[in-house]
Amino acid sequence: MNESTLTRCSWGADGIMRRYHDEEWGVPVHDDRKHFEFLILEIFQAGLSWLTVLKKRDAFRKAFADFYPELVADFDYKDIARLLTDSCIIRNRLKIAAAINNAARFMEIQKESGSFDKYIWKFINYKTLVNEWKELSQIPPRTELSDSISADMKKRGFKFVGSTIVYAHLQATGLVDDHIIGCFRHRLPHGETVIHSNVPG
User: Out of 11, 24, 50, 192, which one is annotated catalytic?
Assistant: First the structure.
């Protein structure tokens, strides 16, 4: 299969974005550390492009203890100072503080639900929601589902988890399949049970 001739979502046409589109975006995640990685990256993406974050992904991995939430939760003022001087990542004090805070909240969910994965997939009864968008312009920035999850996470003390960021997480981790119809990644057999939902909230 010649990947250059495949039909894909237009945002994933080239370079690092193509690799991310083809190999990760929309593939169901069931690993807590991967969930936490995306939550950190999505915090820092707020107000910026996803491409900017992907280019710095390896630097974020190094800066944030390989995305182990139990290690990030223990970051102190020295770590904050280190991160604020690390030119390889996005230096924003509020986002750094949110990442550390969210690590602790993440672990609380793990303790309560057994895993973050069980917590978040329970919102959709453990079944990927497969949408039927024909154009990227049809994809909503948020839905009733992301509104609900965002509200619950905020109630639990998470920061930088507005509905738009939560919806991006659902898309990235495969709880929602928002590849457009015709994209070779749309409705790939991930081994998940799928149901169709094309009505935005």
Answer: 50
